Structures are given as C-alpha cells and as structure tokens.
User: Fold this.
Amino acid sequence: MDNRVLLKNAEEMSQAISRVADSIISEFGVDGLADVALVGLYKAGVPLAKRIAEVIKQRTGAVLQSGTLDISMYRDDFGQRSALPLIRETEIPFDVDNARLILVDDVLSTGRTIRAALDAVTDYGRPALIRLAVLVDRGGVEYPIRADYIGWTMQCRMDRKILVEFSEEDGADGVFEVAWQRRAE
Assistant:
C-alpha cells in the first residue's frame, strides 16, 4: 500500500480541530473554561494546542492557559533507541496542583506517549483532572488509554503510521498514512 493523504489541506484540518474545540467547550461550558489549561506534547501537540486555544477564544472569548511538555525522558523506550532524543524545554507557567489539564497530542496510537506524559505532568503537581485531546485516534492502543476529545477517528494497520504536519512546523497542513516498520523490542 502506498502512502495515503488523509486530510490534505488547512480547511479539512480546521474542521477536525473545531470538533475538538467544540467538545471541550461542550464539556466545560463557557464559564468553566477559566481554569482549564492546554498542555501540548512536543512536537505536533504544541501547534495543535495553540490552534485549539484559538478556536475556543474565537467562539467563547475565553483565553486558556497553556504550556508545553517534553516527554522524552519519560518514554519506556528511552535508552533503547539508536539515537539520543532531541530534548525540548517543558514550559508550564501555571500551578499544576488542582488544575484542570487537557493534554494535547496529534495522534493517539499505542498509548505509550500518553502514559509517559501522565508521568511527566504529575512531576509538576497533582491536577484536579486530566483529559486528552488528539487530532487523530488511529486505534490500536496497547495501554488502557483513550482520548476524550477527537478530531478524527480511523482504523490503521500496525505496519502503518499516521503522520501529521502543521504549517507552523512543516510548511503546510496535512495528515498522511505512511508505511512504517516497527522496531523489534
């Protein structure tokens, strides 16, 4: 199977992001958004979190707190990779204790990234609740983890990977299904 384009332009990406934002607004209500914070996971969760926050601001006027989280040192395959990971700066400029956090990532695949994010974020404090927002839920989780807010759901074989590109990082928006060889563990 060749590589496939799944979402091919900014308009389709915007519709999926709007679904996520609408779900968040629906759960918390306009008045409840004041103490909700978005935490984008590097790399693609960061621009996604910014876009979700912008849609919420446009629709409700609410300005959500935001932060970024690098989970590289929390991954269960740290030390098993052939190359050292690129470590980015975690920035959480608000008190995590009793906060209502929404972790934001581009794709929910096995759940391992989110497990690492849960470990990482709780090193900063004890949130009142943690939710998960993803652009794509591709199915195939290995851990008992699910997304609370989803832009798009699809089933994808384990030998395929979902790749998300954002204009901020990659020059254009798009979601692609590509061939992927999983490393032997």
About this structure: The beta strands are 4-7, 36-41, 65-69, 100-108, 129-137, 149-153, 160-165, 174-179. The domain at 11-157 is CATH 3.40.50.2020 (Rossmann fold).
